[in-house]
Amino acid sequence: MFTFTGMSHLKEKLYQQCLDYVQQRMQAAEQGIKEAQKAASDDTKSSAGDKYETGREMMQQETNRNMAQLNEANKLKVALNLVNTTAEFKQVETGSVVITDNGNFYLAISAGTLNVDGEQYFAISPASPIALKMKGLKVGDEFSLNGKTYTLIDTN
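and the corresponding structure tokens:
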């Protein structure tokens, strides 16, 4: 079991890793947009006719794809801004760290596996099936998902 101070420190580290994840996604999308726009402007200087139109359309599709990724990353950032890293929860809520006998979870955003102090945590969206099963549960409670039973060992 963690002390509140230890859990609070853990939450801050997990939150920071989620924030880094979002920022990396945003930077990658912004870089992709810049590269597609540069390629489109370079193409204008050297192409003519149908080849020009096809190349320009491909660059526009790439820009649109990167804009969609940037939009998704912005949504993740907004969701992350709603996560409280200092609250002490008596039951599983958004912002909780949940330690189970089948894995450790951080209910914030879907950011994959995070590592803190040699331990793995799965950063999951509060709307994910496993988070929905956990919400409102307390230490000692159990839930099942996909034929697997989870027992909550610690939560905050």
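(Above: one complete record from the training split.) The two ends are 10 Å apart (CA to CA).
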